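Researcher: Let's try something more involved. This one mixes different molecule types, so please make sure each is placed in the same coordinate frame as the others.
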Amino acid sequence: MQTIFFKNKPRIVATGTIAGPKECAGVVGKYVDKALTDDMFGESTYEKAECKMLSYAISQAIQNARLEEKDVDLLISGDLLNQIISASFAARDYDFPFLGVYGACSTMAESLAIAAAFVNAGYYKKIIAATGSHFSSAERQYRYPLELGNTRPPQAQWTVTGAGGALIADMGGDNDLKNAPAITSATFGKVVDYGITDVNNMGAAMSPSTSLGILQHLKDTGRNADYYDLIVTGDLGALGSRILKDLTWEKGVDITGNHVDCGEIIYKVIEKEFQGGSGAGCSAVVFNSYIMDKLKKRELNKVLFVATGALLSTVSSGQGESIPGIAHAVAIENVE
Amino acid sequence: MQTIFFKNKPRIVATGTIAGPKECAGVVGKYVDKALTDDMFGESTYEKAECKMLSYAISQAIQNARLEEKDVDLLISGDLLNQIISASFAARDYDFPFLGVYGACSTMAESLAIAAAFVNAGYYKKIIAATGSHFSSAERQYRYPLELGNTRPPQAQWTVTGAGGALIADMGGDNDLKNAPAITSATFGKVVDYGITDVNNMGAAMSPSTSLGILQHLKDTGRNADYYDLIVTGDLGALGSRILKDLTWEKGVDITGNHVDCGEIIYKVIEKEFQGGSGAGCSAVVFNSYIMDKLKKRELNKVLFVATGALLSTVSSGQGESIPGIAHAVAIENVE
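Model: All components are placed in one shared frame. Result:
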């Protein structure tokens, strides 16, 4: 059994989100707390801009929950940069403890799952789970200097500039929270490697672990795929989503009717983004703004959020390794 | 309250450890499961050797617990390499879920604490917490190519080549486990930055967060420092340990009588290691071999294990950032 259950139903009390100009031209534009007009966010480097976005998402989640910094017990965060410096340096500005995680683009689900597990067990009452990414910092770290103007192949995705954070709280006796969406279970994923070596084809690298994660979650919970109003995957993009649907279909599970991918929907895909968005910020922004809005308005009531990560580095690829994937699934439901 | 308590007393059932030739010339030599004579461990790159050591520690912990891979519910691991590739690629070889964490050299305590929290809450029955590091992979990632033969300044530490893993289990009705050391509480640390910018002086960068972490743990638990037979810090080295003792003494707490630092004791410091060992593998090897041996033999009964991390990257330092530190504290006690 990979799935753990949260009988005390920790609530997602509030979220905070921010995204870049390109992202805000798409579906999330009217749902984020802050739509940047300048993706440098007033900073001198891409990395500092990424860190500042993450801090913004954290602070905004606290503010949207009508809480103060002193009310928060723990921050769980990570990001794509080497040694997760965005998360570590964001955490430096707050007076609460920090638990650093790394799951590449699966970080939003991983941090949400740990937060829910800790709140459900009564260890802490209020935890923030957050992550983000920046197109320009990711591009120069993982691929080439932007100034080189490299051509992107058609299977490529575009790293999202944005950040999102969620405040997970014990409902306690607080009736104000009873309508907030609850995290009811989580399925931590296995590392799966089907041998993809193309660093531009993240969707293909991540879809096997995503498929296995969803199937495992359904098996552990005894649910059919249509139990969920929506199965939202992290950032497989258009190609990865097609592979995912094929892989699950091969195992007798049809998710074509209720599946959507954050990477596939975030951009108005016209030209340069090709397969759609990627990056830890992709699912963080889409989930914490657009999806959470629909959960709060009860347009969605049962959502399986499956953020997916490609576990590579420039060193691993340079040494000839293929790209393992991971996917963590978190069930979010309106429970009353 | 930063400290969380584990009333079900999850046990450290077994550990697995491996270390390089230089490390095994020191105190851990006769306690590790495998003492390497060749720090390449038969691999073609330092990174692959580091990953293989981590896999060895994981498999050895399972074997020493007289369990099989199928009995393990979850692996919690991370390491110093960009995108924690040692942990991710080690996890690829096992058929259990993986939760990736990053806390630099605090990873052993962070992963132990999460494992204990999950087992205590009944989410999983058997979890492995593991980490490691390799001198040569760390040196070329964080500092200079080894071939350059750079001079090391006297405040420098030496990254440990080694890995350690612990299997944390619910005691359940298993009387065989009742004598195993228990994890009784954990204190997640805050990110603290006193403005150190010297990337060779990790001990100074980490000692403020370590001091605050220890003081917070003692406050939350209502204990005096002498409650513990030993307060073992991660890898502050000789200079960092002196700073730590000064900082805690300034706050009225004297730990000079029962403090030891994994970095300070791991090498027979003669010449080139200067302040001692560092790296995620430092506290992982010392704790899981030497300290656990003394706990199992009841030569020690109450240990506070405080692994410490310096949260920098080459990019953050290159952009003029100072070095924040973090320390997570885990209490391990013989409870009956």
